[in-house]
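Re-running the complex after MR caught last week's input typo. The corrected sequence lines follow. Everything else is unchanged.
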Amino acid sequence: MRELALHITDLVENSIAAKSQNIHIVIREDNTANHLRLLVSDDGSGMTEEVLERITDPFYTSRTTRKVGLGIPLLKAAAEACNGFLTVESSPGKGTKVSVEFQQDHIDRMPLGDIATTIRNLIVCSPEVHFKFEYSVDDRQFIFDNQPILQELDGVSLTEPAVLAYLKTVINNGIAEVQTGNN
Amino acid sequence: MDKIKSLEDLKRIREEALKQKSAKSTAGQIQIIVGMGTVGIAAGARETMKAILDFIEKEKLTDIVVRQTGYAKWDSFEPIVQVVIGDQPMVTYGKVNSDAVTRIMESHVVGGKIVDDLVIED
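Corrected-run output:
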């Protein structure tokens, strides 16, 4: 995967598969400390210590349809190649937290990519999940929470064209403001 | 865009959505499912999903349910898109890039005609 945003889709899909009700996505780009941090935490089914120990092994997967799971091992390798790390904390019944750090200006650091599309896709296709997305670059921050939107829509689907257009505008503008510093 | 303003906008958006909904009649509920497992994502499923949502937005299609699934048993055919119209059987499409999305949306979702050359057999 060539973008961090695609890895985020992958991590969140794991959270959804673990039947999470609340998923929190945090991206922090700090140019002074020279790191990019990513955090995906959920309140899904979590993992036992035994599974957790093997989670970064590419030849381990909890699925039964195929014998390899490459999502987390690939992201871990990418982070470590950029003087960073990937850690997973999890406990059964409580949830899972994946933390990743990259050296921000490392030449091999993959770009964040199209995070706006990633977030809109996730929100529209899993309306039963409470998503909180926080993105910051230095001291600029964008927070997007789907709960107030769902309440305000009061049963109108997120896939209605007017709602899709609204979500695209709000998410694209919020992210662009954080990235460029323009309001 | 500040938060309060954007929530006020939503009241208007909600009414607009309801108006559009009542203006169009649909032939049973339409469900579109995109495979978003690791393999699907690596094969371009996020762009596939984006193309579907953009088509719905652009063509103002209402009452369509779009879902994602991590379920994958056709790895070499990813991205996978499945379409269910009303009580008709589910149709599974493989290697669905953005161009294939346009064909599936125009022919199957809007026109009711299955795009045979993109269908994969179970």
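None of the earlier attempt is carried over here. The first helix of chain B runs from residue 3 to 23. The beta strands of chain B are 30-35, 64-69, 81-85, 91-93.
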